[in-house]
Specification:
Layout: H1 3-12, H2 14-34, E1 39-48, H3 54-75, H4 78-87, H5 94-99, E2 101-105, E3 111-118, H6 121-143, E4 154-163, H7 172-197, H8 204-211, E5 215-220, H9 223-227, H10 240-253, E6 263-268, H11 275-288, E7 293-297, H12 305-309, H13 317-321, H14 327-330, E8 332-333, E9 338-341, H15 350-354, H16 357-369, E10 372-376, H17 385-392, E11 395-401, H18 407-419, E12 424-432
Parallel strand pairs: 5-12, 6-10, 6-11, 7-9, 7-10, 11-12
Antiparallel strand pairs: 1-3, 1-4, 2-3, 8-9
Helix pairs in contact: 1-2, 1-7, 2-7, 4-6, 10-11
Organism: Pilimelia columellifera subsp. columellifera
Membrane topology: Multi-pass membrane protein
Transmembrane segments: 14-33
């Protein structure tokens, strides 16, 4: 993942970074508040040899530098800790005293630094004072050759004991700064990892490359349409969603000039991608362009058209296919130029009904009577109904929900369409968020603007004489 991709992932999931930052800062604050302050007393020793002459002094300096490293270990030894614990009056045993002492030999020098850290200022200073006295005595004792009274090494305290009035722990500013940095890194890392592991379709280019068919429209996400799925473009005015669907209508009219589409199957890979609402809105927008449109609900498992349009759905396509009613009895007008054929009762054998010769005859009949026939088909992956219905139409439109449908599902859906020799006209990337590059977010359309178009509402009086074969009148009970 390159830096622009990482920044894009962090921007889309900024709340992850904010959550991780809040968590680490809260944890750091709790730990800092509940940590007992500790104070440090520092000392610096100078180690020398009592030699005279330049040559002897040089050799003594080299000797002392080598010994200083050993003295650093001696400062934290058990022997010295026992001496300090016995005389400092600190009430600590030798092990606890040793844990409070840290010694460091400065490289290329004869200086030795020691730090005594304790929760009490007074005890830290007392331990450091006792340490300085006993350390010098211990070194002289160890470095005095047998039978001589003079030590080969001399240790002098040159700095300290110096008590730092500011606690060395906890470091509040440092802790919070490190926690903030850690939180940002964790949040950004999680966002980047989620982006890498996310195999859903995010962009039109990715969908086009995967399916091998053009993306005819990218429909932006509409919160109101999600809350009320039956919300139609006639109620949305010139919202970005409505304009994107108009673009889809236009692209379908010019997708193949030599082979115009008269029967269109609208399907998706899985459920919940917005295929039924897309079919409804597309049918309404074709009537807006002056077309005579028939909308068929061929989803015989989970029909939605009757619910979205507010019409009676108990009788419809399955009723006609079963020979229980005539077309004129079940076709229902909805506004000017739009007729709807609901699904009817749910049959036990939807695949057989959609693949029957009677269904093919109906589609041929509708193709002659209407300018555009839109068929809402079942999803392609759960059942075979969608592929069967798509094979009967002039072309299929694959609706894909952005950031929900995976690449594997889309590829399998496209393969299912092509496996029955159906014509895949193109795709629709549905519910695209502005962060994914929605081209309509810059237009400034007012989703709440009143719709000035007339005639696009449900009406019980459909102009039946506009059809080549006049349908039978629809009763008032059907025209809801």
């Amino acid at each position: 993942m390159e830096l622009p991709d990482l920044l894009r992932a962090v921007r889309k999931r900024w709340w992850w970074v904010l959550g991780a930052l809040s968590a680490t800062l809260s944890l750091a604050a709790v730990v800092t508040v509940n940590t007992t302050p500790r104070y440090a007393t520092s000392l610096t020793f100078f180690v020398s040899t009592p030699n005279s002459g330049v040559g002897a002094a040089y050799e003594g300096g080299l000797f002392t530098q080598q010994r200083v490293k050993s003295y650093a270990s001696l400062l934290a030894s058990d022997r010295l800790a026992r001496l300090v614990a016995g005389t400092a009056g600190a009430g600590l045993d030798a092990e606890r005293v040793r844990q409070r002492i840290t010694a460091t030999a400065k490289p290329e020098t004869v200086l030795l630094d020691a730090v005594v850290v304790d929760e009490s200022r007074q005890r830290s200073l007392a331990l450091a004072t006792s340490l300085a006295r006993h350390f010098s005595t211990l070194v002289e004792e160890l470095e005095t050759p047998p039978g001589q009274s003079r030590s080969a090494v001399k240790v002098e305290l040159v700095v300290g004991p110096a008590l730092d009035p500011t606690p060395v722990a906890p470091r509040r500013v440092r802790n919070l700064a490190l926690a903030a940095l850690l939180g940002v890194l964790i949040g950004a890392g999680c966002a980047a990892l989620r982006e890498i592991l996310d195999t859903t379709i995010k962009t039109s280019d990715g969908l086009r490359d995967l399916v091998g068919a053009p993306v005819l429209a990218s429909v932006p996400f509409d919160q109101a349409a999600r809350d009320t799925p039956q919300r139609l473009v006639t109620h949305a005015g010139h919202s970005p969603r409505a304009e994107a669907l108009r673009q889809l209508r236009t692209n379908l009219q010019f997708v193949d000039i030599d082979r115009p589409v008269r029967t269109l199957a609208v399907t998706s890979a899985v459920s919940g991608e917005g295929k039924s609402s897309t079919a409804c809105n597309l049918a309404i927008l074709f009537t807006e362009a002056g077309k005579r449109v028939l909308l068929i609900d061929a989803d015989l498992r989970r029909p939605r058209i009757a619910e979205y349009l507010g019409i009676e759905g108990a009788v419809g396509l399955t009723t006609v296919l079963a020979g229980q009613a005539e077309l004129g009895d079940v076709l229902q007008p909805w506004g000017a130029g739009l007729w709807v054929l609901p699904s009817g009762f749910l049959p036990p054998n939807p695949s057989e009904l959609l693949g029957s010769e009677h269904m093919s005859d109906l589609l041929r009949h509708f193709r002659d009577q209407f300018d555009m026939v839109i068929v809402d088909c079942p999803p392609l992956l759960p059942v075979t109904d969608g592929a069967i219905a798509a094979a009967r139409a002039d072309g299929a439109l694959l609706v894909t929900r952005a950031r929900r449908t995976t690449a594997a599902q889309v590829a399998a859906a496209a393969a299912a369409v092509r496996s029955v020799d159906a014509r895949l006209l193109g795709c629709v990337l549905n519910m695209v968020t502005p962060g994914d590059g929605d081209p309509y977010q810059y237009y400034g359309y007012d989703a709440g603007a009143p719709d000035r178009r007339k005639g696009h509402h449900r009406s019980g009086a459909g102009p039946a004489d506009r059809f080549g074969a006049r349908p039978e009148p629809v009763s008032a009970g059907q025209d809801r």
